[in-house]
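Regression test case RT-17, inverse folding.

Input:
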């Protein structure tokens, strides 16, 4: 019961900005594990999109 309440609170606390930052960190991690430039371009696009979405 307590775990369910905590999980619900955590889900409500996640804003779009937090989710975007988590996805950006995941993309950076995955891009660091490969040698392709496509991954680096995807990270750059994500960074630019996040920067544009902030007021």
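Golden output:
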């Amino acid at each position: 019961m307590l775990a369910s309440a905590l999980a619900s609170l955590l889900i409500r606390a996640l804003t779009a900005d937090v989710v975007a930052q988590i996805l950006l960190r995941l993309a950076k991690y995955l891009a660091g594990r490969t040698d392709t430039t496509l991954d680096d371009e995807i990270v750059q696009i994500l960074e630019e999109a996040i920067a544009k979405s902030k007021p």
